[in-house]
């Protein structure tokens, strides 16, 4: 107790300790939280979520709701993926080395990690701070980390950078890029002489009493409790996470109980006040992003320190408000952002407002529209195939160019990932991941591509048969 009091006093002298939000609601009770989350699940079809809320150094509530993808009851001790919330943990791991005098933030990464080489001489100038600030110059536009063959270890994640180039001069541009934190995690391994998972367990999880938390390498390591869903027409469909590597950048699994301990640790001195201030000081290139934390305000103007996390089948969010901490994990993917929406509702409760619950499942109208288009497309395809002989009879010779539009959906289907990269300004993605983001659109697009190709093939076949009959000599 004395240690906590002293740490709080030290923090107040360097980093402002959150004071209670003016007008905050005294009704942020376990029953009120349970009621809101349950109503949200009923309205949206969200199958499972975990929530932790703290006030100062006390846990207001930590609970699980609904079911996991494997059908088990979700509790406060159920491990779930926290995705990119993991970046805050990786940043803390690096800062522990900084406090020990083993690493300096403004020194080049290569001085600590000689294996970090790229096909770009400018990479030698990248500093540890630039990795954590996401200003290293690495970016999806120059290194397609998602669509390349995925590594299995942090060593492999760094090794595959040997042929990569930078998108910008180090320290000049902010670009959110998972590889930054994978390199940082590998640096921790090398400088500590221990696997990253062991270092986190020894330096973070065990000291904080986070008994059910750990970090994993790839999607193949996700336990059943941490797997998630897509939603179509408001119904959750359990699906495996697309192939991907996440250690250091998004590989941590945690629980509501453990995340409550993590939130409290942000107030009671797991790092020195100087290090805490360092972690929450943004870069000049992006005043909204610090070392593994985002800096912002709520819609009501309350200052927050936060970080979100997205997988294709689950989402997570953590937020520190004046006097409070909130963590949410949901087992639906980034297309639905249930963790972020729940976070906003819980924040509204703390600010004295009323949390909003959607009237219908997200994208219900959009899903209905694309599924209707799919049925229409299939119907038109059946009609086109059945009438292919008649089409061939009236469109001969040069008129066969009219088949080209039939292949347009196939061309779009094959080009959807490059098109997404253009629309996302260089953001990388695999074809299958587009399907996870826009499931009913992709169902329609694949159906249209199949239908168009089938109609074209039937018409070509009909034309060949017609030509053969015309050329056949009379008996």
UniProtKB/TrEMBL annotation:
Keywords: Membrane, Transmembrane, Transmembrane helix. InterPro entries: AmpC-like (IPR050491), Beta-lactam-related (IPR001466), Beta-lactam/transpept-like (IPR012338). Residues 33-333 form the Beta-lactamase-related domain. Pfam families: Beta-lactamase (PF00144). It comes from the Bacteria. The keyword Transmembrane helix applies. The chain crosses the membrane at residues 363-382, 403-424, 436-462. PANTHER family: BETA-LACTAMASE-RELATED DOMAIN-CONTAINING PROTEIN, D-ALANYL-D-ALANINE-CARBOXYPEPTIDASE/ENDOPEPTIDASE AMPH. This is Beta-lactamase family protein.
